[in-house]
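BUG: 3D viewer hangs when loading the predicted structure for this chain

Environment: internal workstation, default settings.
Expected: structure renders.
Actual: progress bar stalls at 90%.

Input used:
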Amino acid sequence: MAKNAQAWTGVGIRSNRSPVISKLHRSARAECTVKGSKKDIINMKSFGPSNCNEICLEYKKKLRNVMATIASVVILTSPITMDIDLSWNANMNTKTISNMNKNGPNIRHLPVFTCTIQASRQEALAISLTENQRFVSDVWFAVTSQYFDPTFNNLGEAGWKEQKLKAISAVADTGPDEEDQIIVYQAIQDMLSSLDDPYTRFLDKNKYEAITAYARGGSLNSGQIGVQLLFDPRLNDAIAASVVEGGPAEKGGMKRGDVILELDGESMDGASAEVVAAKCKGDIGSNINVVVLHRPEDAGGNDEITSTILDKRNIQELSIKRDTVKLNPVKISTFVSTRTESKVGVMTIPAFTQETVKQTIDSMRKLQQDNVQVFAIDLRGNVGGYMPAGIDAAKLFLAGGRRIVAEVNQGGQITAYYSDGIGAETSIPLYILVDEKTASASEIFSAALQDNRRAKLVGRKTFGKGRIQNVQSIGNGCGVAVTRARYVTPLGRDVHSVGIKPDKEIDCGRNDAIANCLSGII
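Structure tokens produced before the viewer hung:
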């Protein structure tokens, strides 16, 4: 056995095949080769007498499970030859075997096989991983076990494993020092970047603590700055999709469309909207210094973004005092169409929250009492929010049994959500105004009503956020966000990165009056 070999022990199977047992040598020996994949087939080269094929098959199954366990721990760069020693752990003498062959086995006589596997390193990276290498491996397994795309961005299993090996090699000589941790975190980020998915990302201690505290709701005295954030993959930054009127952010000078560059001196490059929102939260009355890049709300592609960044006059540091911020409720208004003279009831939904459905129901009732003939819902600048609210709000306008949205996970399993039709308004004509900031839960709502031919979409193509993330701890106070599923519209559309095309495309900005936007349409 080679030097530095390491041993594993696995419990074998029980067998009642006495004709095979009677001919099986008590100290059989076997060799197998494993390549480090759960799907690799173990090649049994020899196993005792040549006529023990039946029990060899049973052991082959057992050894596959043992090897799968080993493969999940050992990082292999080449096949490793395993020498497997098999032995009885029951007192099997000639008389016992003879009785078993004659009268059949008794449960107390059935041997339990055990195998001790010795693995020699052959150009292996390391069987005993360093703490940082194990940490990298833990991140890789956390992503692998739930990532929604089984092809791993067309890398395939082999290519995705290669990314793990690169990351582990990069941290081989690192230790617990803070400078080394930067190398480890960068290696993990490089590994995850191969998936080309900005929503699957590593969360260091600060970012993970911020996002978990935000999910818990923080302290009772938590203050906010009053801004809705949206992660823009083109910028790899969070942007202010909307700013609460009269809120702390607006008072401090933040504008819709601003890019969040720093918070209290910490770079927000690559930080998700959730992480930035969490860090904006704090004690009421406390200040937060925010460095923003002012840019036009309708800034175009990367060239325009780059030229804006190069102009340092567009970068500004703001001091914002946190305060209690009441989320904008659903607002209602009316206007009369100049084309049809129909009375239009408008519901402006700035974000989907746990209160949105109730507020929408109340708004619908008030508008119906005002004898409106058409509904218009304004979702411009609505970046989403609470996903179940988008689903439940769509139910308010659909007959029972209509599909609203479906989630598709790594294994292709589909979880579909349907309308129940209870109290739904299905007769009044409905128009939905959208723009390039309409995202996530807003897109679920819009696509459900468009695909079911319940509403006409008007405006600009939507943002295109059709992925679901899960955040989990991976130890050392850090975490990882993993895209675990994708959204599919009722007609099977995947809107991610492409958005939803309105039925009627018009150039209608966020500040344009909805009556003007719908002029000539209603």
